[in-house]
Here is the input.
Amino acid sequence: MLFTRRTMRRPLFTICVLVSAFLYGGMCQAQKTQATYGYYLNGEPVRSLAPSGASAVVLFFAASDCPISNRYVPEMRHIEEEFAARGVVLWFVYPNYGTTADAVKQHEAVYGSEKHVLLDPDHQLVTLARAKVTPESAVLVPEPRGGDTFRSVYHGRIDDRYVRLGQERPKATQHDLERAISDVLEGHVVQQPNGPAVGCGIIGHP
Amino acid sequence: MTSSGAKHVSAILLCAGVFLAFWAKPFHVRVQAATAPVTFSRQIAPILYKQCSSCHHPGGSGPFNLLSYADAKRWGIQIKTVTQSRYMPPWLPEPGFGNFADSRRLSAEDIALLKEWVESGMPEGDSREAPKAPVFSGEWQLGMPDLVLKVTSPMQVPASGTDLFRNFILPVPITETKYVRAMEIRPGAAQVVHHANMLIDRTASLRRQHPDDWMQGVPGMELTVDSGDTFDPDSHFLFWKPDSPALIELSGMPWRIDPGNDLILNMHLKPTGKVETLQATVGLYFADKPATAHPMLLQLEHDGAIDIPAGDAAFVIEDELKLPVDVDVLGVYPHAHYLGKRLEGYAILPDGEKKWLVLIRDWDIDRQSVYRFQSPTFLPKNTVLHMRYTYDNSKGNVRNPNSPPLRVKAGNRSVDEMGHLWLQVLPRPLPHTEEDPRVLLEQAWMQNNLRKDPKDHTALYNLASADMISGDYRPAVDLYRRILTAAPTDVRSLIALGTALDGIGDWQQAQGEYERALTIDPQSADARFDLAHLEAKHDNYVAAEQEYRRLLVENPNDAVSHNELGGVLVTVGRTAEARQEFESAIAIAPNFDALYNLAGIEADNNELPGAAVLLERALKLRDDADAHQLLGNIYAQSGKLADALDQFKSVQTLRPKEAVPHRQLAQLYSQMGQLRDAINEQNAAISLEPKNADDWNNLGVLHARNGEAGLARKDFEHALMLDPQHAAARANLARL
Here is the structure.
């Protein structure tokens, strides 16, 4: 199935590279990450998103009470399984102001627990990834200079299943996030999403 | 000059007046907004509590709650977005194209208020001004149901994937016919279920098709069930969608459910991101009495024309149906799959007027619903119903299940298409006849289906059945033969042909068809039963007994065969054996016929109290004139005249155009000394049968006993005019 999808995209590759190259220059200004990235569910600050040598970090901006976000949980697990062996680390990021560690734990009790989960009440990762809604995703890559700093090379929708609120495909036809991760791993220019992320607005400080 | 100047000023004022009138409303709104900001407490809470909370509450189908200011603020941005786009609340019909009850469509004013509230920072306002949030109990809405059914095995809905369509079969553990006045469906996991339809499977046909796996639920978007051999067309929309309250039927319109029927819950399920366990329950509330009004579901469709080329963004199918009778339309249920775009349903009245029934500009299968009219929509006879559906099979249709688009035909899978418009109609009684108008509707509907597909097996069969009900056996024979030409081994049609042949008096050929059916399927209980019945009808009691006994060897719990065998045995004078058969039938499943027949034996043996008890039981199962009649006679013989009177009145109600009940009532009133009532009833009998000399003679006797000799004389003379040989009338006249 995955092989088929990649094969079908191949004829578009040249065009995409050209378009992406144009976008890339504008978008991918190196953004240094800050020293902490939010908080673990035990309240400790998250100081590292990935061990050294990781190929990429994928952020999944989630909300426990957003139905579209919840529907993407299995898809994100699938992506995690697909790329974990290639040095890709997935974080579930809960960015909404007011979301508590207990609420996330309750959510995990129902939807399954994750290895990497953090709360981002100060929107450090939201800002880095320019996330607007849940669910939304970002792909970070280590800065060439090393250390625990990353820059965002992709942010936006996970796939094209949702066109807008109320308009949904029976199944996705474009898997933008997967394609972006593959681009990173294969050293290609990262193609940006072909449509907006659809979901529930991220809640900031009042 | 002055005058001229004054005119000029007037003109300016007039223009200003027009301008002010034009802008008056917007100015007013702006001023109001400036002085009194929109707050949750004052304007927003009433909107949310009325239009949103019924789904958005704990345990409801909405994914989050909207029951407080905090809830509203949390979701304010989304509320603004989804109300602006009219994604929420879900409501597909276009306003002004059908006046529906329980519309969930928000007014433009409410949408503007929500927008203004969000954009002004979502202020709470004075919380004391807010209405009390609605309370949603987990209890049954109408109290404890009379019967609760639960899906046998819970289903695990996977966390992800495409939508699922599953049919859960609910056997109904009842031993006598019930009439359902209300039903509440509890889906079990409300957020997974987009909608559900309940079907009545009169013959448990789906369960028989899936003997090993029915408990897990049968996949499929739509299904066809066998409605059996009695004319009882589907009549009610038994539909559930998120926020559906308990479904209460209109007065006098409960739906019937018999022992042996299954209910089938057809559910559209949507994965939520986590594995969900689904086990629906259904609560049924029974009415005391059967229906007095009989609606019917009609369907317009043209699935046979669905062959949509890949890429076609505007493929149209149409259907039309001319109404043979006056009807009131109670509701509509449009249905298509993922390619449906614009759905139109309308009626062209005989005078050419176009009356919209429903218009949906942007169909969404996820939001489908039954729409019930605020008040019934009357459509006179010869109105033509129209359905016109447009499909979008282009890649621009985001709901297209095929990417890239493929050629699509009609079918039961989600990647196939359908185009149906169901209407619930209540036919008005036919003038000058007691014929069931639903039969005429059925005939028109099936003829329409045959126009679209002359080989439509179901339409041929149903049309033949409708002819049979109307007593038109000859066309029915032709139709069954058409079916058998295409499907010569179709046992059901062979049996039906036998019945139709018997109807035209060709019982030997009928016998041959039943035997042919038994040759093809020796286990066909229906064929053997009909053959036995035919033998009995034509006085071949030995053969009939033999066939009934074979049936009972195969199925000792066949109550109907026990009863029929009892009937044969009574006829040949073996009353004791007959009694055993009737008793066996009653022990298996109390049924009207066996109770009535056994009561007859008891009455013949002058066991009047026992007979009365049996008839009283029978009448709880079926309101039957003969049973009332017999019970009335028994009461009268037992000296219970008032009870007898009640029974004869019931006979009169059930047979309003017959003189006999009036005669009996007249006789009973006479016995009770209520001569005036007796005379009224006798007059009623005469009004129905004015040429019956006996009735005139009896009226004369009543008048004479009431001291009205002059009237009595005229009555006797009238009797003699009708029948100059009427000895009693002559003697009575001589006695005056």
Q: What stands out?
A: The helical segments of chain A are 2-9, 13-27, 67-71, 73-83, 101-111, 124-129, 176-186. The beta strands of chain A are 56-61, 88-94, 117-119, 133-134, 136-142, 150-156, 162-164, 167-168, 200-201. Chain A has a mean pLDDT of 82.
